[in-house]
Amino acid sequence: MGFKMGIVGLPNVGKSTLFNALTRTAAAQAANFPFCTIEPNVGDVAVPDARLDKLAAIAGSKQTIPTRMTFVDIAGLVKGASKGEGLGNQFLANIRECDAIAHVLRCFEDDDITHVEGRVDPVSDAEVIETELMLSDLESIEKRLANLHRKVRGGDKDAGQQVRLLEAAQKVLEEGKPARTVDVDPEDAKAWRMLQLLTTKPVLYVCNVEEEASATGNAQSERVRVMAEAEGNSAVVISARIEEEISQLDLEEAEMFLSEMGLEEAGLDRLIRAGYALLHLQTYFTVGPKEARAWTIPAGTSAPKAAGVIHGDFERGFIRAETIGYDDFVTLGGEQPAKEAGKMRAEGKTYTVKDGDVLHFLFNT
User: Fold this and answer.
1) C-alpha to C-alpha distances, 136 to 36, 91, 98, 139, nearest whole angstrom
2) In terms of pTM, does the model score above 0.70?
C-alpha cells in the first residue's frame, strides 16, 4: 500500500515545479501564469529507504523493489473556487480522491513571478485555500442532508449515522473550523472516512523557499511552522528550484550538490517522511535471494492484514508470520544467523506488525 498526496496551492507558488522535481518528469507544465495545469498530473515515485538496500545486500537479493507513493499535481485554486471561480469544482473533486493534502505555500520573493494576490503572505494563502475547501464541504453537506433526512424517515439506520456525522461536521464548519477538528468515536471512524469531506484530509504545509534558505528556512516559513503547530498539522521547508536541479543529477552528483547547499537529504525524503507521519504509515520488508521488497501499511496493522497487502490469499489463508526485527537481521547478518540466534519469532493472527519487521508469511491456499 502506498498513498496518494494531492499537491495544492494558489497559482504560481511552485506546485508544478515541485511535482516535476519529485517525479523526475516534465509531465506538469511549469509556467508563469495561472491554471497552466489543466488536468491533474499523477506521478508515481519510489519511496527511498536505506534499510531496503542494506537488507538486499545482506541477502544477496537480485532485485530491490521499493514501496511507492503517488503525487497528484492539482491546478491552482483561487478565492471563489467553491463557487466555480477559476477552474473551480473540477479540482475540488480531484482533492477528494487523495489521502492527504500538501499545501504548497510561496515563502520566497521574486519580482519575475506573479503572485495571484499581488503579495507574498503564505499564512493568508493557506487561509484562502482552507476557506474554499470548507465552503465546498458546507455546500456538499447541505445537499446530502436533504436527501438523507428522507431516508431516515424511511427507517434507514445507516442514513441516521451519516446525518449525525454530517451535522457534527456542519457545526464546526459554520464556526470557521475544518471538519478534521470533529472528535469522532472509533465506531464511527469508517463511516466518517466514507463521507470524503475535503477538510477531513490531513494537511502538510510545504514551504517553498528561495535556494539560500533551503537549509534553515526563512521568516515566512517560520510563520507557517507556528501556524501548523497551532493547528496540530506539520510543515516542511523545501526549495522547489533546488529539487528541480537535483532531479537532473546522478546519485553521486546529487550528494555533492546537497552537501554544498548544507543539506543532509533531498526534499523528497523529508516530504515522504512527513507524509508517512501524517498518515501514520510504516514499512515492513520481505527479503530473499530473488528480491528484497518494501511494503507500506498503516501503523497498528495486524499480521494477516499486512499479508493481505501482498495478496488477498495470504490474508484469507494466513497461518503465521515468521518475523525478524530489522536490527536483528542486519546485526546478525541475515535470516539464517538470526534464526540460529533465536531471533526469528513465529507470530499469529493477533500480532501487530512493527516498522522495519522482516516477514515471511505461511498460509493455506
Assistant:
1) 23, 11, 16, 5
2) yes
